[in-house]
Design a protein that fits this description.
The complex is a heterodimer of chains A (about 290) and B (about 260). Chain A is an all-alpha fold and about 290 residues long. Chain A has 13 helices and two strands. In chain B, helix 2 packs across helix 11, helix 4 packs across helix 6 and helix 7 runs antiparallel to helix 8. The radius of gyration of chain B is 23 Å and the shape is globular. The chains are: A mainly alpha (about 290), B mainly alpha (about 260).
């Protein structure tokens, strides 16, 4: 074999274990559940291989699934909006502050290292019947009995915002940091007020970061089932809870496959639209 | 020039955002030292009681052992795969490198629930039931993209000149890799491994699908304990986890800085 041919083969040898793993453990399994979603779970619990549309018909036409899917998208949208409103000024402050930027950034990274389940359940200590807030309200005499604040849709959104906010702040920060501050100065010296130069120069230039953070918050938020289980009530199930129910509790794997694919198609479409207009590079900047 | 009312408003807002992010976690740590037998306010005294109880709880110790073994194996496999792939992507001109990168990043673009379902059902079809092996396969596949992103970002900054110098001075490629490239890459490799370990150690979404009955990791153990109200033990367990997953990276960063300083002189 010539030296060139060996040179050309080397990267493929290095790549093959990782590509093999992704193929065998992700792409083939995804194709498999696509096939599986057309099988039928019979009353005896055995799977009937074949091409049955029953699961898809149930998943797509039953108003129960449709309502929960829409509810899930709504929760994810509100969460994303709240993250953007809370996160943008914070990201702006970090990007433009001088002295303590390193500490602010370190603190911003810390939540990524703190377990998701701990951060989610930590709200029970604050909002629970004997939590911090109720203890405080009773101590100052505002209420006589503890208020039930937990286990509703608002606390689910609260938990999701708490979990996802760092993703948003980090992505906006990365894009703000990449903007040449001379542009803002130029706008100011040409007579724009600070607010005008922000609205017309800085904000538009930071939109890619805002979009990347928004995509992450929406997709991660819409795919969760732990937060509603810990902070939601019995009626606050999200779509991923239905998948969990179908697969783990009811053991109806063909139906679970169809529901999983529905979620994948809806969220995957968002990722594709994002990729079409902004490209994956922006997203990777924030993650790496 | 950054003074003014607007800037102060933004500063105040940022402070509130940080309080929002850290207050609940701080309360977990605070309550874990509460002497009261309920996992809630008021604080009745300062005590290490719940940490001592943790060390006597077999279920929790087992969960820790499972999580640590799973995390270490995940880190080992995921880092090996990730470093090899990153080397290929950074050091060679691979046709279609963009497509390959996207394929390798795919596990974080697919919602974790969907990944969990697909892997569970496919491996079950291949007669691999819920087991430690399935758990490991799952953890490897969703930590791999993070390892590749972290390692790749660090690898780019290592110059090829040093390797070329070694080669031109008569070292063969294998010698060059082990004596020059690997030591230079070590911080990147360790960062990737640490990342994989922490993500694996924290995971619950996929783990609940893949774990065999009776096997618990620390997060699933906490989740199971949450079913009956919040106990002080959960807060203590949470504190231990926070110390582990926050302390390890900080320690790692300190060691990396130390190593960089040594190799710099």
């Amino acid at each position: 074999m010539s030296v060139e041919a060996r040179e050309a083969r080397q990267p493929w040898i290095l790549l093959s274990p990782a590509l093999g793993a992704v193929t065998l453990l992700l792409f083939v399994p995804l194709l498999f559940i696509l096939v599986y979603s057309f099988w039928l779970r019979t009353a005896t619990g055995a799977d009937l291989a074949g091409f049955y549309l029953d699961n898809w018909q149930e998943a797509l036409s039953d108003p129960f699934y449709r309502d929960i899917l829409l509810g899930t998208l709504r929760i994810a949208a509100i969460t994303t909006l709240v993250c953007a409103l809370m996160g943008y000024p914070a990201a702006y402050f970090i990007a433009r502050s001088r002295g303590n930027k390193a500490i602010l950034l370190l603190l911003l990274m810390l939540p990524f290292w703190i377990s998701y389940i701990i951060r989610t359940m930590s709200w029970i200590n604050i909002l629970g019947v004997s939590g911090g807030l109720n203890t405080f309200l009773i101590a100052v005499g505002l209420v006589d009995e503890p208020i039930q604040m937990l286990y509703n849709q608002t606390t689910v959104i609260l938990g999701l915002v708490h979990f996802l906010l760092p993703f948003m702040v980090l992505n906006i920060y990365v894009s703000l940091e990449g903007i040449d501050t001379n542009l803002e100065d130029a706008a100011n010296s040409l007579g724009a007020t600070r607010w005008q130069s922000f609205l017309q120069v800085t904000l538009p230039l930071s939109l890619p970061g805002l979009a990347a953070g928004g995509l992450l918050c929406f997709v991660l938020g819409a795919g969760t089932y732990i937060t509603p289980l810990v902070l939601g009530g019995p009626r606050d199930a999200m779509f991923a809870n239905l998948v969990f129910e179908a697969i783990i509790t009811q053991l109806n794997w063909p139906l679970g496959s169809a529901l999983s694919l529905m979620l994948l198609v809806v969220l995957g479409a968002l990722v594709l639209i994002y990729n079409r207009y902004l490209g994956m590079a922006q997203l990777m900047k924030g993650l790496g | 020039m950054m003074g003014g009312l607007g800037w102060n408003l933004i500063r105040g807002w940022t402070l509130l955002v940080y309080v929002f992010m850290f207050l609940p976690v701080a309360v977990v740590v605070l309550l874990s030292f509460n002497a009261s037998q309920f996992g809630s306010f008021p604080m009745t005294g300062f005590s290490f009681r719940w940490f001592i109880e943790l060390t006597q709880n077999d279920a929790i110790l087992r969960a820790f052992r499972t999580s640590i073994i799973l995390g270490l194996l995940t880190a080992l496999i995921s880092t090996t795969l990730g470093v090899l792939a990153s080397l290929a992507l950074v050091r060679y001109r691979v046709p279609g490198a963009n497509v390959i990168s996207t394929l390798l990043i795919a596990p974080i673009l697919v919602p974790e629930v969907v990944l969990a379902v697909a892997l569970l059902l496919f491996l079950n079809f291949l007669s691999i039931n819920k087991s430690f092996a399935l758990l490991l396969a799952g953890h490897v596949i969703f930590t791999l993209p993070f390892v590749i992103l972290v390692v790749q970002a660090r690898l780019v900054s290592i110059k090829r000149d040093v390797e070329e110098a070694a080669l031109s001075l008569g070292a063969n490629p294998v010698q060059t890799f082990f004596q020059i490239t690997l030591p230079l890459m070590l911080p990147a490799v360790l960062a990737g491994a640490l990342f994989a370990f922490t993500i694996s150690f924290d995971d619950i979404t996929g783990t609940l699908f893949w774990k065999p009955g009776g096997v618990e990791t620390v997060p699933t153990q906490i989740f199971a304990m949450l079913r009956n109200s919040i106990s002080p033990e959960i807060n203590a367990l949470g504190t231990v986890m926070i110390v582990m997953t926050v302390g390890l990276p900080l320690l790692g960063a300190a060691i990396a800085r130390q190593m960089a300083r040594k190799s710099g002189t």
